[in-house]
Structure formats: C-alpha cells, structure tokens
Write a structure and sequence with these properties.
Elements: H1 2-5, H2 7-18, H3 22-34, E1 50-54, H4 62-71, E2 76-80, H5 87-90, H6 92-103
Parallel strand pairs: 1-2
Length: 105
Amino acid sequence: ATYQAKPELVRQVQQMMERQTPAGIAAAALGLAAREDVRDLLPTIDVPTLVIVGQHDVISTVDEMRGIADAIPDAVWVDVPQAGHLAVLENPAVVNKAVAEFITL
C-alpha cells in the first residue's frame, strides 16, 4: 500500500539505501547473520517494554512480534495499520501516539 499511497516516501527510503557503501551493507548483513537467538531471555525482561509492528510487515511479521510481546512480562503491544517494516515512517501518527502513551504509563 505504501508504494501506491506514498511514492515520495518510497523514493526517499530508496535514496537512503542507495547512499550506503557496499562495505557498510556487507557489515550489516554479516552482523545480522551472526546474531544469537536470545528469545529464551524475553521472559526475564523486567523493564517496561513496548512492541510495535506494522500490520503488513513481512520481515518482522505480526505473528513473530506478537510472540515476542507475549513472552515479555507486561509488554505493551501495538499493531500499526497501513504500515509495513518501516511503520514509524509509514504511519507516524499511530507510532507517535503509541510511544507517547507508553512513556506516560
């Protein structure tokens, strides 16, 4: 939906990605590949936690993020409509409202 409704946002994100160096992209990919799975530690989190996901995110899916939120004691869950992986850019009003409400808890 973002491609059709917000082509300028898509263009800005593409330009940001194109400005990255090959070495930077490779380092980020290697870092992602080498990261440990620490999901078993989620139940030990004892600080206020806000989990936000775009309802159309295909990278960090709603189901995956819901599982993370469910594993963290007392986590606050927000499913952002009309957003994918870049929810903060795609639907900033919903994300900003969620963060503002969360920090006033």
